[in-house]
Amino acid sequence: MFKAFVIVCSLANADVCMIAKDELGPYRTEFLCKARLTKMTTDLQHMFKEYNVPFYINKTVCVEPDKKEV
Question: Residue 38: how many CA atoms within 13 Å on its side-chain side?
Fold first, then answer.
């Protein structure tokens, strides 16, 4: 099982970042998790553009819950 996370950072200050954690998972396969990451990334891009917030996607990752990587 995999959980999806997206790390988003401010373009104005690279030290200001947030972790967007998926609330729909976990997913049975890494493929399904990566498909969810694509959707999350698109949604975040629309959200930040709507509020005119300069940002960049620092990292997208699928993590197995028993492993501590993010």
Answer: 6
Contact 19, 70 (CB under 8 A): yes
Give the pLDDT confidence of 22-52 residue by residue, as tens digits.
999 899 999 999 999 999 999 999 998 888 8
Task: Give the Cβ contact number of residue 8 at 10 Å.
Answer: 22
Q: What is the pTM of this model?
A: 0.81
Query: How far is 60 from 67, CA to CA, in rounded Å?
Result: 16
Q: What percent of the chain has pLDDT over 70?
A: 94
Q: How far is CA 63 from CA 13, 52, 57, 59, in A?
A: 27, 30, 17, 12
